[in-house]
Design brief:
Strand content: 35-45%
Helix content: 10-25%
Strand order of the largest sheet: 1-3-2-7-6-5-4
Shape: globular
Number of domains: 1
Distance between the termini: 33 Å
Structural class: alpha+beta
Radius of gyration: 16 Å
Number of strands: 7
Low-confidence stretches: none
Number of helices: 2
Order of helices and strands: EHEEEEHEE
Length: 134
């Protein structure tokens, strides 16, 4: 039995072809199985998303394979990390960090359509993305 991980990778636009070739060779992922997004306010990079499969119980250190990639989750047309989702809940419900049962709170995902939601340095980042259709 396998588990699928959704990966989001930031790729320099000039390196796109090289990146697609790399994931095909390393993970057997065809370019048709990837999704490319333009990043608002960043003309130098694309965001690529794709799934990798691991055997149940196996782990992966993404830094061994990618410089700028992370495991994300998807809800409607939004991508997010779990930490970012928790920060978003805190912001949307005006909560202070601490002992919060985040599962009790719902997000209106329509408000965050076509966004990548990340957190870092205790801050929430909501980045608008636009799918590039080939």
């Amino acid at each position: 039995m396998n588990k699928k991980l959704l990966i989001a990778a930031f790729v320099n636009k000039t390196e796109s072809g090289k990146f697609l070739k790399y994931i095909e060779e390393e993970f057997k992922i065809e370019s048709s199985k990837t999704f490319k997004f333009e990043i608002e306010d960043d003309e130098s990079q694309y965001l690529y998303t794709f799934y990798i499969e691991l055997e149940l119980g196996d782990k992966i250190n993404l830094r061994d394979y990618f410089r700028n990639a992370l495991i994300v989750h998807k809800k409607k047309a939004s991508f997010y990390t779990i930490n970012a989702l928790n920060k978003l809940i805190e912001k949307e419900y005006n909560l202070e960090s601490g002992n919060i049962d985040y599962k009790n709170y719902k997000i209106d995902w329509d408000k965050f359509k076509n966004n990548l939601i990340l957190s870092g340095n205790n801050n929430l980042s909501i980045i608008h993305i636009k799918r590039v259709f080939l």
